Amino acid sequence: MRRLYALVFAAALLPALAFGGTYRLSEVHAEGYPTSLADHEFSRLVGERTNGRIKIEVYTGGTLYGEETGAIEALQAGDLAFTRVSASPVASYVPALNAIQMPYLYKSGAHMWAVLNGEVGKKLLADIEASGSGLVGLCYYDAGSRCFYLKKEVKDVAGMAGLKIRMQNNRMMVRMVELLGGVGVTGIGPNEVYSAIQTGTVDGAENNWPTYQNMGDYEVAKYYILDQHTRVPEILLMSKAVKDELSRADVDLIFKSAADTQAFEIEKWAEKEKSSEEIVRKAGTAVVTLTPAAFAGFQSKMAPLYEEFGSAYKDIIAQIQKIGEKF
Ligand code: BDP
């Protein structure tokens, strides 16, 4: 009898295993943005390599989920198969990921990539699934470095006092702003930042050149403070529930296809970072370069953050800093 049940069960599963299906991928950025291009490339590779058996439909512009937290939770519930998000909100579910996005951690983009594509990054990517989060990390993408952009000019950390800054949904990032003297405001999707600044809900936000430009935020927050406080990579995530429905061979193919899009995204990223900076500078953005003393002022405020959010990951952080000696 038991064997019969097992047979019926296997037969019911067979079509899913053999025939694949159509899956959705959620993305907050518009078409043409580097991560959107990479999403499409991922979809193309998976489609091609399965002869169309697995189809991935890419929904850009936040049309499925305007807030990345919503997409992440949909993945956990098995309602959504894939999403490309920033590592920052993912750390709310997999706290170890904060270790790779501590403020003023990397010397450069090359330093970050040596970490992400080395042992530390690979282990953390695998930990996303191993932690039981219901999420599976497929690959990292580039997102440059993040800077504050504000309605008023700020030349040193004293100028941050009392400013309301839109932050990603991550407690560590909110705390970072508090330590700088400001107030971190969450719950505002990246596509809503423009109006939140315009209406005065916040005094500014923080992001890389491409998001600052692409979302149009530079029109309402004209001061871009070059403090480069964080480098937060993007992550392509898959639902664990969906992964468990797929055959081993298909899962391997999906991992491989995701990995194959990384270099593509990094290339698109470099182009976009350059053109976005040019666009906003031409439009009259006031780019504030901090003096070494002012920069040190920002950086020195971060010691408690390393204690509060980094103490459980001291080894990882030390490894990252060690890798930095080569840069
Ligand atoms: C951008 C990331 C995007 C985030 C956004 C944000 O590409 O995934 O949603 O920042 O600040 O740089 O929410």
Description:
Helix 2 packs antiparallel against helix 12 (262-282). The model has no long low-confidence stretch (mean pLDDT 95). The protein is α/β, with parallel strands linked by helices. The protein has two domains: 19-93 and 132-143 and 232-275, Bacterial extracellular solute-binding protein, family 7 (D-Maltodextrin-Binding Protein, domain 2, 3-Layer(aba) Sandwich), CATH 3.40.190; 146-230 and 289-324, Bacterial extracellular solute-binding protein, family 7 (D-Maltodextrin-Binding Protein, domain 2). It is built from 15 helices and eleven strands. It binds beta-D-glucopyranuronic acid (BDP). Beta-D-glucopyranuronic acid binds next to strand 3.
Poorly predicted tracts of residues: none
Described by strand count, sense and barrel closure, the largest sheet is: 5 strands, mixed
The first-level CATH class of the largest domain is given as Alpha Beta
- What percentage of the residues does DSSP assign to strands (E)? 15-25%
What CATH architecture label of the largest domain applies?
3-Layer(aba) Sandwich
Q: Structural class, judged by helices and strands?
A: alpha/beta
Distance between the termini: 65 Å
How many E strands? 11
Q: Secondary-structure element order, as H and E?
A: HEHEHEHHHEEEHEHEHEEHHHEHHH
Radius of gyration: 21 Å
Using the coordinates shown, work out and report the CATH topology of the largest domain.
Answer: D-Maltodextrin-Binding Protein, domain 2
